[in-house]
Each structure stands twice: as C-alpha cells, then as structure tokens.
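Please, why this fold?
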Amino acid sequence: MAYCPIERFGICLSTWKFDITVLGTLNPTEVNEFGMEVVAARTAVVQGVTEYLDHRPTYENLWLITLDDEGRASHFTEWFMVRKGTEDDS
C-alpha cells in the first residue's frame, strides 16, 4: 500500500512517499530459529520503504507494533537503514 501525504489528481505533490506491507503477526506460542519461545502477543510486523523525491536517499523500514486490547498501538519499535545505492552524494 503506497502513501503520499499530499496528493492531487493522482499526482504526489510531497517531497516523499511511503510504501508499506504488513508481513504478519507474531504468535506468542511461536518458536524462533534459536529455539526460544517468542512472547509477542498482538504484535504486527510491518515493512516499509520511504522514498524521497529529491536528492535524499531511500530508506528501508521495519516496524514492530504491539496492540492493546482495543487495537491501539501500545508499543512501537522502528529500525531503518539507507537502501544500498541511494546514498546521498552531496
């Protein structure tokens, strides 16, 4: 799902846009690759790409969002890194 904060007539007028994919949720009974039980009830895993429409680099994003009993975010963790080949040369 792509997002542009300022869009008119199908044209992005912002200096950036964001594409997001929900990769899934973590089940508290899952066992990770190290054999440890993951305690992450109601935690969504989201992958995103922030693309700037000027000279700035593109960023890869990974979010872990824990939801409370009413479906609102109660905890948020983000990791980001510059996408290889889009580094700013200025």
The beta strands are 2-3, 7-8, 11-12, 16-26, 43-52, 59-67, 73-82. The longest strand covers residues 16-26.
